[in-house]
Amino acid sequence: MNRTRSEQLYQEALQHIVGGVNSPSRSFKAVGGGAPVFMKRAKGAFFWDEDDNRYIDYLAAYGPIITGHAHPHITAAITRAAENGTLYGTPTELEIRLARMLKEAIPSMDKVRFVNSGTEAVMTTIRVARAYTKRSKIIKFAGCYHGHSDLVLVAAGSGPSTLGIPDSAGVPASIAQEVITVPFNDLDALQTTLAKWGEDVAAVMVEPIVGNFGMVMPHEGFLEGLCKLTHDNGSLVIYDEVITAFRFHYGSAQTFAGLGNPEDIQPDLTALGKVIGGGLPIGAYGGRKHVMEQVAPLGPAYQAGTMAGNPASISAGIACLEVLQGEGVYEEMDRLAIKLADGLKASADRHGIPLTINRIRGSFSTHFCDHPVTNYEEAQDTDGEAFAAFFRHMLERNINLAPSKYEAWFLTTAHTEADIDATLEAADASFREMSG
Ligand code: PLP
């Protein structure tokens, strides 16, 4: 496949943009390096690159594009918003509409505040939890990604209940000392950690369904146990639902069937992003009224934003949720994802390639290994080179995946049966080459 123009643009980008990309996950470093593909247009389930190659897209911009690219209902809403002025710096009725839609779908959110990214949303939930509890330490889970603010760029120390160490240059060791990282799906480790740090712990933060070391479900009873242990300790539960909200059904993980009795798995604070902006920049956080009343102008915890609640992002978010309210929308994504995931597994088996697929409704992750993946350690213990080879073979066959073994495939409302068939054909040919 000719990708000359992408290669030229990458060389040019390297001269002006650090690393040639505006987010490290876009580089091809984790799949053998080289020029990432420069896209110039996207519509529905498809991308076109600068050399006019067409790809079926399963990246979905790392999650937000659940209705496919340039969905007409969302495009019309953005156009209308732009014609009425893109940024006011005053309250608008639109913000109330989207806040109400979020509250109706996520009952633990009595009050909402809009911000501009998932990073901001998570960062602020931590500040609010600290303000409310007047405590400072945070417990999080290994492999969960919560954006790039200092406090969550912290890796585990030498044991489950030891303090963290910086996971990025520029994060001071003093900040890492405020965070303890424990393995996902391990209530014993959480219990030990809470027992050790007790009244220092402001909050336990978790992706209730993990989306960042593949898609990983909590074990039965994990979220119930997490909420009980945390609340018994006088700490708050923060759910990072930046990926999970509106991804699997019209609602969030805290209302997703099978994860536990809804009353027993309610967080105090929730962070949102991605899908709720319909492809424009957005984040939101919310929670119990008495907790959210810590936030300025009502309370002492400060958080602000020039761009927050801008009419374009809010309009795109409303339009996106309206599409997702359509009948059978999620069921159709599930149906196609089952066909695709089952087909991939059968094809890998045929060619003798070990593959574990974690599918949760319309999204799934492909782990090149022959063991289950239920925590970060198991996700790390998979064949990154096999993934890189698969990624490159698929790209050559016009299938666009995320360039990392940890990222999910996202189905959208725009994918069709024909796209799934074409993807399975490409995968079968890729596995054949890899095994030969
Ligand atoms: N939280 C989770 C679970 C995420 O997956 C991400 C981004 O991938 C973030 C937070 C950060 O969101 P953003 O990239 O919008 O800052």
TrEMBL record:
Signal peptide feature range: none
GO biological process: protoporphyrinogen IX biosynthetic process
PTM annotation (N6-(pyridoxal phosphate)lysine): residues: K274
Protein localization: Cytoplasm
Enzyme Commission numbers on file: 5.4.3.8
Catalyzed reactions per annotation: (S)-4-amino-5-oxopentanoate = 5-aminolevulinate
Enzyme class: isomerase
Co-factor(s): pyridoxal 5'-phosphate
Pathway this chain belongs to: Porphyrin-containing compound metabolism; protoporphyrin-IX biosynthesis; 5-aminolevulinate from L-glutamyl-tRNA(Glu): step 2/2
InterPro entries: 4pyrrol_synth_GluAld_NH2Trfase, Aminotrans_3, PyrdxlP-dep_Trfase, PyrdxlP-dep_Trfase_major, PyrdxlP-dep_Trfase_small
Keywords: Aminotransferase, Cytoplasm, Isomerase, Porphyrin biosynthesis, Pyridoxal phosphate, Transferase
GO MF, any single term: transaminase activity
NCBIfam families: hemL, PRK00062.1, PRK12389.1
HAMAP family, sorted: HemL_aminotrans_3
Family: Belongs to the class-III pyridoxal-phosphate-dependent aminotransferase family. HemL subfamily.
The protein, known as: Glutamate-1-semialdehyde 2,1-aminomutase
